[in-house]
Amino acid sequence: MIFKFTRVVGLVTALSFAGSEVLAAAGDYAFEAVNVEMKKGEDVTVAVRLINKITGKPVPDAVIFRTRVDMAPDGMAEMESPVSPLPANEPGVYVFKTDLTMAGRYQLSVAAKVQGEPETVIGKVVLKASK
Q: Where are the domains of the chain?
């Protein structure tokens, strides 16, 4: 009887470890600002880091396919600025050029595909532009 119980426990444990990667989800990733605060102006460089929240490591080679910068945190989502990608020098860091024409809080919204992850990773990062 104990032998059968041990086999069942061993099988359940093995299956839980084998399936742990299958249980990964888009929620296991987060975008964070490299610098939260910057000076307002045109052609401002904004950088975000994509992190795997489980490992704490940066995620390189994600495909960013949608970005938006607006002033939603200050109740002005209609104040949208153009966003252009720039090359990055650090794995897991994604750099963009945008206009932060007014002092205040801006929201950078990013949608990305991560290799091996079937779901789209979506992030919103709040930035602050000062005078």
A: 25-130
Task: Calculate the CA 18 to chain-centre distance.
Answer: 26
Q: How many CA atoms lie within 13 A of 12 on its CB side?
A: 6
CATH number of 25-130: 3.40.1280.10, 3.30.460.40, 2.60.40.10, 3.40.50.170? 2.60.40.10
Radius of gyration of the chain (CA): 20
Q: In what order do the strands lie in the sheet with 63-71?
A: 37-39, 121-130, 104-113, 63-71, 76-81
pTM of the model: 0.80
Calpha distance 94→80 (Å, rounded): 20
- What are 128's strand-pairing partners? 37, 105
The conformational region for residue 77 under phi > 0 = left, psi -120 to 50 = alpha, else beta, is: alpha
Per-residue pLDDT tens listing for the chain (131 residues) = 554 444 444 444 443 444 444 456 999 999 999 999 999 999 999 999 999 999 999 999 999 999 999 999 999 999 999 999 999 999 999 999 999 999 999 999 999 999 999 999 999 999 999 99
